[in-house]
Fold this protein.
Amino acid sequence: MATTVLSGTSGALYYKPAGTTGSFGEADVNTTSETITVQTFLNFKVGDPVKFRVVNSQTGGTGTGTLPAPLSDATTYYVIGYTASTGALQVSATAGGAAVNLSDDGTVAAPNEFEVYYADFAVVGQVRDWSFEISRQEIDVTTIGQTPGQYVPFRSYISGFGDGTGTATVYMTNEDAALSNRMIQDVLQRQQTGAAFKLYTDRVFSGGTLSETLSRSISFDAVLTSASLNINPDDAQSVTVNFRPSGTPTFDFAQS
Amino acid sequence: MNYQAIRAAVENPLLTAFSALVPPVPVYFDNITAAPANTTTEHVKVNVTFGLTNEPMLVGSMDNARGAIVIRIFTEKGKGPARNQTLITTAVNVLETINNTAKPSTGVYFRVGEINGPTFSATESSPLFMGRIETSYVATVLS
């Protein structure tokens, strides 16, 4: 088979909104009001799909403990209420359904804690284009006092920290619930924890569903740094959102 | 995309405006037989073209029609531009009224761009004197 260049149209941008990761302990679970108290001023919205897990707050990895019953780390729940000023969160097993009837507080001991997070990346359908640049700091380690020969001495470098920046151009639409609208507002979101991008260079479906194996992508937790709105009589309204990774990106350019 | 609704958004008010004049001035749109080539009766020709229909995105596309409107006014030759300019004013007023209409919640949202002209010519469609204006437009069909 001939080698073919990837078309720009096979790209896509997936996003997890900012302020959608919260933590809580046993004492934050109220089995009477069916609420869980997480951090204040997060950005959970009604209908957000979320999952629960136990994490080790020191390592960031998987922790030990038992989620409050009947919550399961394998199940996607849906936010039905979040009060930013108090951090009170209610979830349902179905979108818009009744609150999950919490029967116990679960079991967790420091440094472990419960975590609620946005379930999975969601496609931002209004993205016209995205760009992502990664760079590496260079450190000059040239030895001073070299004796030149026929040619001048050359500088020597070693590589330092990595860094990255990204940009996405998003169309403004008349859809209130468009994830792109949320991405724009997330720039000024007080708590951006949970914000993450998955940038597909090649989004491939298999059997009608997105195949992560066959697709190629770059994913990373991110901070959103700015948004620039462009509104004029000639062009469709668009917004340029700038972001940068808050950790090391994961590159998946293989189809295996 | 509803091309008919977009076309109607500009053709209807133009037809209404020229029909309201005394005497009424006939307006010929795309694919409507115009006045005979050698007629000396003043008339208007309106052409609406669709340049771009949508905004492509990485995932799917959205409707956003853009195109051009050309309005040609034909009046009696050898009588100066006054009558022609009077009729052009009628057309320009219609276009500006469209732009000054508030955005509705349903239907077609239509806006024209800069209006170029009028330019005049006495050589086309003899024996009539022609004034021409043209402009771009942007239109979206609201759900």
